[in-house]
Amino acid sequence: MTTTARHDQADTTTRGREKAFERARHSPVVRHEVFQTSLMSALLDGIYDGDMTLAELLGHGNFGLGTFEALDGEMIILDSVPWQLRVDGSVTRASLDQLTPFATVTNFVPTLSEQVNGPMTRAELSSLVDHLGVSANYLYGLRITGDFEWVSTRTVRRQKRPFPPMSQTTSDEPVVRHEHTSGVMAGFRTPLFEQGINVAGCHVHYVDNEHSHGGHVVDFVMNSGVIEVCLGTDLRVRLPLSEAFQDADLAPNDLDQQVRAAEHH
Ligand SMILES: [Zn+2]
Q1: Total tally of structural domains belonging to the chain
Q2: CB-based contacts of 19: which residues, under 8 Å, 6+ apart?
Q3: What's the gap in Å between 55 CA and the centre of ligand 1?
Q4: What is the CATH number of the domain that holds 137?
Q5: Rg of the Cα trace of the chain?
Q6: How does DSSP classify residue 62?
Q7: How many whole angstroms from 18 Cα to the centroid of ligand 1?
Q8: Is 183 among the domain residues?
Q9: Cα dist. 107→56, 80, 196, 232 in Å?
Q10: CA of 202 to the centre of ligand 1 (A)
Q11: Residue numbers of the domain that contains 213
Q12: Ion ligand 1: protein residues whose beta carbon lies under 5 Å
């Protein structure tokens, strides 16, 4: 179901929320699986060994995000094509025999969409998604397609063995700002109860239409485009079969802090 609304009129009023609820209620709801391999907490603990090929990963979904063996760049999957965005700024189509230590995918079927006209910050867009009739208790695939005034991204750097925990790898990543860029953001809006299993809140990766730049999205201003949301009701988690995973500390006391530091700076 598609509606058109200027963001400044959209959905922050009681009436807007009621309309959004009506839309959500009348969408055909079917069970929909989100698949992930490994855990965010394992990545935080330095489990960067690839445990699954992209060929196998794509069998579980045509859309999503993740990272590569040894933390060698950000992954974005659009229409079954995995792209590798490295810290040197390169963007390449990843090959199916490459390995991932962590990725989340789904077969993206938009259940709600909203047209955006006029500049909208990341915070405004996030609040718009909140008012689209989504629940805090489900997962959602999130696809944002459009023209951006600017998008700032960062990219993880390939690590050498023995792998350090993620908190020691992300602090020196440069944030790159791409001006006047058009492309697609893909990712997930994940419930709070999933913190550590995945990244609670909105987590999206970006690649421009020419596949010339992108990365893990830090911030942006969107000029126009479409936000699409795909309801996920079922979460399937595949745990790595490795000694490193067996011995990992997956529930540190500062887990919440670590996830925030790694993914939201
Ligand atoms: Zn990311």
Answers
A1: 1
A2: 11
A3: 21
A4: 3.30.1330.80
A5: 18
A6: S
A7: 33
A8: yes
A9: 14, 9, 23, 10
A10: 10
A11: 30-263
A12: 216
Residue 193 belongs to some domain of the structure: yes
Output the CA 85–ligand 1 centroid distance in Å: 11
- Mapping DSSP to helix (H, G, I), strand (E, B) and coil, where does residue 17 land? helix
Q: How far apart are the first and last CA of the chain?
A: 34
Provide CB contacts within 8 A for 89, sequence distance 6+. 176, 213
This prediction has a pTM of 0.89
Q: Is residue 7 part of a domain?
A: no
Supply the DSSP string of 143-186, one letter for each residue.
EEEEEEEEEEEE-----PSSPPPGGGTSTTPPPEEEEEEEEEEE
In a domain, 25, yes or no: no
pLDDT tens for the chain, 265 residues long, are: 344 444 444 444 555 555 555 555 545 678 999 999 999 999 999 999 999 999 999 999 999 999 999 999 999 999 999 999 999 999 999 999 999 999 999 999 999 999 999 899 999 999 999 888 899 999 999 999 999 999 999 999 999 999 999 988 866 788 999 999 999 999 999 999 999 999 999 999 999 999 999 999 999 999 999 999 999 999 999 999 999 999 999 999 999 999 888 876 4
**How many residues would you count in the chain?**
265
Ligand 1 centroid distance, CA of 209 (Å): 19
Q: How much distance in Å is there from the Cα of 105 to the middle of ligand 1?
A: 13
**How many angstroms is it from 19 CA to the middle of ligand 1?**
32
- State the DSSP code for 19: H
- DSSP 8-state assignment for residue 88: T
Cα separation, 80 vs 132, in Å, equals 26
Distance 22 CA to ligand 1 centre (A): 32
